[in-house]
Design goal:
minor pseudopilin epsh fold
Length: 166
């Protein structure tokens, strides 16, 4: 009997497809978990940086700057000058009048604010970079993802921003 060595047999192709299928079935859940954890780490780092930017903006402009959580919608935040301009109320943790928006941020899909433990769901930095309206000390917030992993950020009275994995 003469064999054709120019191709693969049906059995060889079937075994290869079965092995690849098994590897894919094993890899997909791990990839989904890795992706969700990566989005959480990215959002955690971004929010930590945005809190630092809000604080530095308050110091550089010598004005009150607020970072309001879940504004304008859930899992979003707004950073604005809380100086009462244009008929607004200064330092009220609400963007009103013509108080200037500095920027907005949004958490990734599957990441949410699990806990916001801050006065009025916002962090207010005064013109010296200190946290104002200290009902809660230190203020903290917890970000979580759909996999149950969590990161926590603390904002102290002196405006220091620190975070860690829970």
């Amino acid at each position: 009997m003469k064999f054709n060595r120019s191709g693969f047999s049906l059995l060889e192709v079937s075994v290869t497809v079965a092995v690849l299928g098994t590897l894919i079935v094993i890899a997909i859940p791990n990839l989904l978990t890795w992706s969700a954890n990566h989005r959480l780490r990215d959002d955690f780092s971004q929010l930590e940086g945005d809190l630092q930017i809000a604080r530095m903006t308050a110091i550089n402009r010598s004005v009150a700057v607020t970072l309001a959580f879940n504004q304008p919608a859930a899992n979003q935040y707004t950073v604005f000058v809380d100086d009462g301009s244009g008929g607004g109320i200064a330092r009220d943790l609400l963007q009103n009048g013509t108080e200037a928006e500095i920027f907005q941020g949004q958490l990734s899909e599957g990441v949410s604010f699990n806990t916001v433990n801050a006065s009025g769901n916002a962090i207010l930095f005064n013109g010296r970079g200190l946290r104002a309206r200290p009902v809660v000390d230190p203020a903290n917030l917890i970000l979580s993802n759909s996999q149950g992993k969590q990161y926590q950020i603390f904002i102290t009275m002196v405006g220091d921003v620190n975070g860690d994995y829970l």
